[in-house]
């Protein structure tokens, strides 16, 4: 049972890292789209 | 105007300038002494393990001293737009690179030559293996640090936080060379293992990266 | 093109779930020595292979950029390096998590695979740092040069640690030797699933980079236009057509 802790920790850690990275991508997407819209409006 | 004559001329200029001002040399010497003293406090010299770790300590000290020296390699060239003048001149970029690398090599070797007796004194070192092998290790290892260091120092010129950029780029790439230097020195100091492979490793590393630096330096020099 | 992405995303998610089910389920036997903990391999090794593949793509793209100066090559280099670092991070996190219950230690410096992976991670993180901190207009060239250096370094890293290990024997984390064919089968399925996932992540990052460059161009156009003198009777230069 103790060893299984490590197994689940590894799997969860993997997806946490992926989720974190995807989260940063989503945030950057949003920020850039907003910026592009603002630049379009100012024109 | 051959590549070699340009290299020699630039090298002589750098040495002459450094000799006249001596500011970098003096501060580097004192810095090297400080590093050795700090290590002597941090790692008990009388412990039996100190012979095992002395190789590592020496090279880490050299590494930090080299980084401080390398950081101001190109500073002088930037100050009076000498770098721009060099870019528009017909002189080959490689000549400048070789001159800088050789100048740094001489400079860092002088520092090492001064730090080694200090280490021997503080750590009561005596060599159990074939001592002559320390010379190729020192030469090849120093060149490995200096050749990549000069290249990455040029790369770091146009970055924010220039001083931290150099070690950040240099250290990861230098890991095999550092392993070779440290393991080789330890092997010779303890006499436990032969150091031949490490010398071959350092030689291979030097050949590969000297070629890469010479091939790509022109790109870096002309980077606005 | 845009409609394809959500469909592929859903398919990949299903594939990953299926691969996970195989990894944890009864399809594969429990390892005789390690117990069920060995199943970390189904995430650790595919991540490693994916990272190596992405770094190889980075190397090829960097060389292409050095020779041909194609902007697309540079974008591929950036994307593959970034996503490669993510997968490499996972390798370095799952490795010690696996080592601890099996060997009792988190890290063995002589373990050639994990240590080489660490150095690889350091090299590519330094690549990403250079790209972020460089103020040069030739950042892309410098980064490509650094990528070439990194790639040249990799075999040297491997051999230096390999020889060090022969002189100082260390435990090998992750085990060697042959693998039960059922385990290999599940390993490959997991790898395939992660490759699909990596492809989608790279695609997203690529689109992000395109958007980023579009915004930069818009900024540049805006500052060009705002600097045009108001009194001139000449038509405003709208830049390269």
UniProtKB/TrEMBL annotation, chain A:
Keywords: Membrane, Transmembrane, Transmembrane helix
InterPro entries in UniProt: Put_ccm (IPR030888)
Domain of life: Bacteria
Official protein name in the record: CcmD family protein
Entry's transmembrane regions: 6-26
UniProtKB/TrEMBL annotation, chain B:
GO molecular function: heme transmembrane transporter activity
Gene Ontology cellular component annotations, sorted alphabetically: plasma membrane
Naturally occurring in which organism (per UniProt): Candidatus Sulfotelmatobacter kueseliae
Source organism, top-level taxon: Bacteria
Keywords associated with the record: Cell inner membrane, Cell membrane, Cytochrome c-type biogenesis, Membrane, Transmembrane, Transmembrane helix, Transport
Keyword RNA-binding recorded: no
Family listed: Belongs to the CcmB/CycW/HelB family.
Gene Ontology BP term (one): cytochrome complex assembly
Topology in membrane: Multi-pass membrane protein
Protein name, as recorded: Heme exporter protein B
Segments traversing the membrane: 25-47, 53-70, 105-125, 131-154, 166-189, 195-217
Chief location category: membrane
Localisation: Cell inner membrane
Described purpose of this protein according to its UniProt entry: Required for the export of heme to the periplasm for the biogenesis of c-type cytochromes.
Automatic annotation (TrEMBL), chain C:
Listed GO MF terms: heme binding; heme transmembrane transporter activity
Pfam families in UniProt: Cytochrom_C_asm
Cytochrome c assembly protein domain ranges (all copies): 7-163
Keyword Transmembrane helix: yes
Gene Ontology process terms (BP): cytochrome complex assembly
Main location: membrane
Keyword annotations: Cytochrome c-type biogenesis, Membrane, Transmembrane, Transmembrane helix
Subcellular location per the Swiss-Prot or TrEMBL entry: Membrane
Coiled coil ranges: none
Family to which this protein belongs: Belongs to the CcmC/CycZ/HelC family.
Function: Required for the export of heme to the periplasm for the biogenesis of c-type cytochromes.
Protein name: Heme exporter protein C
Organism, as annotated: Candidatus Sulfotelmatobacter kueseliae
């Amino acid at each position: 049972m103790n060893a299984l802790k490590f197994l689940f920790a590894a799997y969860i850690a993997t997806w946490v890292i992926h989720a974190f990275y995807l989260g940063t991508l989503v945030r950057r997407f949003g920020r850039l789209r907003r910026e592009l819209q603002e630049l379009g409006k100012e024109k | 105007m051959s590549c070699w004559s340009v290299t020699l001329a630039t090298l002589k200029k750098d040495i002459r300038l450094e000799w006249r001002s001596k500011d970098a040399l003096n501060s580097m010497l004192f810095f090297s002494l400080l590093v050795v003293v700090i290590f002597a406090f941090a790692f008990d010299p009388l412990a039996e393990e100190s012979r095992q770790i002395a190789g590592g300590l020496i090279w880490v000290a050299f590494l930090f001293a080299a980084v401080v020296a390398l950081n101001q390699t190109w500073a002088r060239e930037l100050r009076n737009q000498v770098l721009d003048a060099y870019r528009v001149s017909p002189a080959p970029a490689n000549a400048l690179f070789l001159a800088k690398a050789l100048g740094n090599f001489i400079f860092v070797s002088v520092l090492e030559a001064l730090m080694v007796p200090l280490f021997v004194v503080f750590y009561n070192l005596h060599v159990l293996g074939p001592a002559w092998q320390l010379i190729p290790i020192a030469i090849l290892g120093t060149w490995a640090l200096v050749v990549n260091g000069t290249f990455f120092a040029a790369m770091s010129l146009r970055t924010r936080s220039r001083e931290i950029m150099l070690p950040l780029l240099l250290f990861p790439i230098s890991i095999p060379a550092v392993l070779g230097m440290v393991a080789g020195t330890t092997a010779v100091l303890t006499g436990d293992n032969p150091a031949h492979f490490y010398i071959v490793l350092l030689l291979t590393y030097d050949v590969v990266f000297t070629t890469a630096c010479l091939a790509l330096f022109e790109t870096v020099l002309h980077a606005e | 093109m845009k409609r394809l992405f959500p469909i592929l995303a859903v398919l990949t998610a299903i594939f990953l779930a299926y691969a996970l089910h195989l990894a944890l389920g009864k399809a594969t036997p429990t390892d005789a020595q390690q117990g069920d903990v060995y199943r970390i391999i189904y995430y650790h090794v595919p991540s490693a292979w994916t990272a190596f593949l992405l770094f190889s793509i980075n190397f090829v793209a960097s060389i292409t950029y050095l020779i041909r100066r194609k902007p697309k090559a540079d974008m591929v280099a950036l994307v593959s390096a970034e996503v490669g670092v993510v997968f490499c991070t996972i390798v370095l996190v799952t490795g010690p998590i696996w080592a601890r219950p099996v060997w009792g230690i988190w890290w063995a410096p002589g373990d050639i695979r994990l240590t080489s992976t660490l150095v690889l991670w350091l090299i590519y993180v330094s690549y990403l740092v250079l790209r972020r901190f460089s103020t040069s207009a030739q950042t892309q060239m410098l980064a490509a040069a650094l990528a070439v250096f990194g790639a040249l370094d990799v075999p040297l890293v491997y051999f230096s640690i390999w020889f060090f290990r022969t002189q100082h024997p260390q435990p090998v984390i992750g085990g060697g030797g042959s693998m039960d064919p059922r385990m290999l089968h599940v390993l490959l399925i997991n790898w395939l699933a992660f490759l699909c996932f990596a492809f989608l992540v790279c695609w997203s990052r690529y689109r992000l980079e395109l958007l980023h460059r579009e915004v930069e161009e818009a900024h540049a156009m805006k500052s060009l236009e705002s600097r045009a003198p108001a009194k001139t009777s000449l038509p405003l230069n709208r830049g390269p057509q």
